[in-house]
Amino acid sequence: MKLFPKEALNAGVRKREVFGWAMYDFANSGYTTVVLTAVFGAYFVGVVADGATWATLAWTLAISLASVIVMLTMPAIGAYADLKAAKKRLLALSTVGCVLATAALALAGRGDVWVAVVAVVLSYTFYSYGESLIAAFLPELARDDSMGRVSGWGWSFGYLGGMLALGLGLAYVMAAQARGEPATAFVPVAMLITAAIYGLASVATFALLRERATPALDTGLVERIAGVRASLARLAQTWRQARRYCDLRWLLICCTCYQAGISVVITLAAVYAEQVLGFKQANTMLLVFLVNIAAMAGAFAFGHWQDRIGHKRALGFTLVGWILMTLLAGFATGPGLFWVAAAIAGLCMGSSQSAARAMVGLLTPPDRRAEFFGLWSFAIHLSVVIGPLTYGMITLVTSGNHRAAILCTSLFFALGLWLLRPIDMARGQRAARDAS
User: Fold this and answer.
1) Under DSSP, is residue 141 helix (H, G, I), strand (E, B) or coil?
2) Which of 99, 208, 388, 394 could form an SS bridge with 405, CB 3.0 to 4.6 Å?
3) Best CA proximity match to 49, nearest among 172, 183, 142
4) Is pLDDT above 70 for 3?
5) Three-class SS of residue 135?
6) CA distance 136 to 10
7) pLDDT tens across 108-128, in order?
8) Architecture field, domain 13-435
9) Span 255-270, mean pLDDT?
10) What is the DSSP letter of 243?
11) Cα(305)–Cα(314) distance, rounded to whole angstroms?
12) 340-357, pLDDT tens digit by residue?
């Protein structure tokens, strides 16, 4: 089987472009894997905040603050990128910002709560900008009937990148622990490794990926200011015309609900493993490594499967899997059952994210791709506010009952499954074509 079959791509798209596009997922996945999931979250709670009762809530508040910033700014940035044909240029700026802020996480030691919070907020904000902008290239590359497959290629490449960053970090952590070094010595190095991989791997993206859009406005200073105003006006018009895109609107609401649950798993899995089941740093990193292997397989295989059975039905299957995963994790009393839950989470992670990105691409008018993916980013980051913050509040109110918090997370997936029902993909695609 060819890795990037030509029949899956739009006319004029070269295979190396798709490789360059997928390499951005490879580059930035180390950030989510190492910083958010495996290492820095647990390090922040246990070391930087010294295990205080408010530590989990403080971690979720930092993530939520960054998400609010993205929610308020990304839709307008996406609209501006469309008007100015500036997706690639803005992607480069967001990449540099995230790489530098990730490296700054190495400065956070015991008690340096504000240093850690500022670096997390900046790094997650820039990461999120890049995630939305790279997604907006997908409809330019893939044919409508292969959107899920191409999206799956990107996610599977991403998990390879996450495993590379995590594997190198794990090797260093195990060597450092064998030498008797504390977490304040080896975690900063893991952050620098992650930042370096992000920066180096993204070079392939900027070398190979083309900006196909053409600017709608001139690029002088006065025109740039007018372009921002036009972007905001266009965004407001999109909201006013939301009735024309009712299926996209339902999808965004659905994504907000189930992604709230996914954001809990991404940002708090390591905290749960260490606080509830007593995992050590190396064990947690091995666990997340397994999750990435399962996620890579799920994203790649599921991308082909969802194009055959339909994106909506495929997403529904993954949400059932997420419900099962949270229940297993909540009732796990030892590492065995939690490892099973982690494997299910990995399969569902790549599958659900690949399906959602493809569905947004299919429901998006061709001339507003970055703008509508900006709206998708708004929904995703609203979920990052709701999910982890709810988890953090539950742990604070229940004096650190992480089991109750993870079991409540299953409700987000159940609600997302219910909200998926009204979406009609054929009707939504017709609305997108008519709008353009």
Assistant:
1) helix
2) 394
3) 183
4) no
5) helix
6) 15
7) 999 999 999 999 999 999 999
8) Up-down Bundle (1.20)
9) 89
10) G
11) 8
12) 998 888 888 767 776 777
